[in-house]
Amino acid sequence: MVRQIAYRRVYEETSPQDGKRVLVDRVWPRGMRKESAHLDEWLRDIAPSSELRKWYGHEPSRFAEFRRRYLAELRDAGHREAAGQLRDLAGHDKLVLLTATKDVDHSQAAVLAEWLTKKR
């Protein structure tokens, strides 16, 4: 059972207490070297569709609708395999969902952390 699911920016310092580190962005973070990310997984297929991501544009006023649409996408067949992988990773003691987004509280990582908590 998961003891902790956290989310934060991929650019922040790593910590021995991180547990499994999973990047949940569709595109690789700008300026980040792969070996610097210290990832266990990059689940690009769990990220919102390009259409949804572009519509949202990280506008906080659209977050509630973004969240609703993204949760609907997570139920679709296109996300099923990645969602299963993420749920398996969430079986560890600690899981950190990483994103390059500046406003992490209004990101897919925040939605996924809540979704995983409710799924367990």
Measure the end-to-end span. Answer: 8 Å
Shape: globular
The helix fraction, in percent, is: 40-55%
- Count of discrete alpha- or pi-helical segments spanning 4 or more residues: 5
The beta-strand count equals 4
Would you tell me the structural class of the helices and strands? alpha/beta
Tell me about the biggest sheet? Answer: 4 strands, parallel
- Could you give the order of strands across the largest sheet? 1-4-2-3
The proportion of residues in beta strands is: 15-25%
What is the typical, i.e. mean, pLDDT? 91
InterPro entries: YeaO-like
Organism: Streptomyces cynarae
Protein name: DUF488 family protein
Observed structural traits:
120 residues, DUF488 family protein, YeaO-like, single chain, 5 helices, alpha/beta
What would you note in describing this structure?
This protein has 120 residues and is α/β, with parallel strands linked by helices. The protein is built from five helices and four strands. The protein has a four-stranded parallel sheet, with helices on one face. α1 links the parallel β2 and β3. The longest helix is centred in the middle third of the chain and has 13 residues, at 63-75. The model has no long low-confidence stretch (mean pLDDT 91).
